[in-house]
Structure formats: C-alpha cells, structure tokens
Amino acid sequence: MGLFDRQSKNPIIATYRNMGKKITCPNCGNTKFEVRDVLLNTTAMTFFGFDWANKNASAMICTQCSRIEWYFNPPKIINE
Ligand SMILES: [Zn+2]
Q1: Contact at 8 Å (CB) between 60 and 16?
Q2: Is residue 36 part of a domain?
Q3: Total-model pTM
Q4: Is-contact 33 68, C-beta < 8 A?
Q5: How do residues 21-40 score in pLDDT, each as one tens digit?
Q6: Domain limits at 30?
Q7: Distance 2 CA to ligand 1 centre (A)
C-alpha cells in the first residue's frame, strides 16, 4: 500500500492551467508536469491530517525538478 497505488501506467506530460492561469513550478519555473491521480486512502489521510478519506487528488510532478504540487480538483491541460 502506497501513496501512488492508483497511478496511471502512462502518465501524460503536458502544460496545465488552473482557474484560468498556467501552472508554473514554484521551484524552477518549468511548465511541464506529469499528473497522477492519487486515491487519498486512510494511510494518506493520516499522513496529511485530513478528516476525510477515499477522495481522489491530482499530484502534479514537475518534469524538471520533480517537485510535487497537489490539486484536489484535476487541472485542465492547455493545448499549445
Ligand atoms: Zn520544477
């Protein structure tokens, strides 16, 4: 059991937007992210201290520096 049990086998690497703004890595400024849907199961719930379980979240992994940004609602892909 791990945080990325439900990761997709072929994650999409793309540029994303949230609330109409392009998502940029706060660490390195990169705009390409690999997104994985993650089930916030009981283990993850405890880890993050949330009071709910079995919700999906999107983990956006910077393809340049590997920083992870978390989004509760999946961001939209920008078609460039
Ligand atoms: Zn980065």
Answers
A1: yes
A2: yes
A3: 0.70
A4: no
A5: 999 999 999 999 999 888 77
A6: 13-77
A7: 23
